[in-house]
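User: Predict structure, ligand fe (ii) ion.
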Amino acid sequence: MRVNHVGEVCAQALYAGQALTAQAGAVLEALQKAAWEETEHLNWTERRIDELGGRKSLLNPFWYAGAWTIGAIAGRLGDPVSLGFVAETERQVEAHLERHLQQLPAADRRSRAIVDQMKTDETAHAATARQHGAAELPAIAKGAMKLAARAMTTTAYWI
Ligand SMILES: [Fe+2]
Ligand SMILES: [Fe+2]
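Assistant: Predicted complex:
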């Protein structure tokens, strides 16, 4: 759940960075709606960590700063690329949450409900990005994003 929480910290930062540089009004609106849902995700995961007696990542300020910078850069590359970045990020997050659902014990219904709802929302965020004209990112960019995500999730699992 700490890893999921870090993911949502990054989502806050990515959307904030992108909203700052979004060009079309409709794109900005779509980003803001998704960002609002990410705030809910952040709250759910934070509360669940508390309930389970866990702790949040010590590196959260670092994750936020990194993701904000990436979001702002993606935004500067123009709306189609920026939305393409959202679509690919959300697709990867959805896949991560699906793997997490497979690992979570059936008895942990609260965690499962949270992860399941987030997965539904992330799928919708990806679809929204595509509807607003997301460009398909080159394979090398997708691969780099996967590597960065793996580094993040592995680190956040421990620290
Ligand atoms: Fe989220
Ligand atoms: Fe999302």
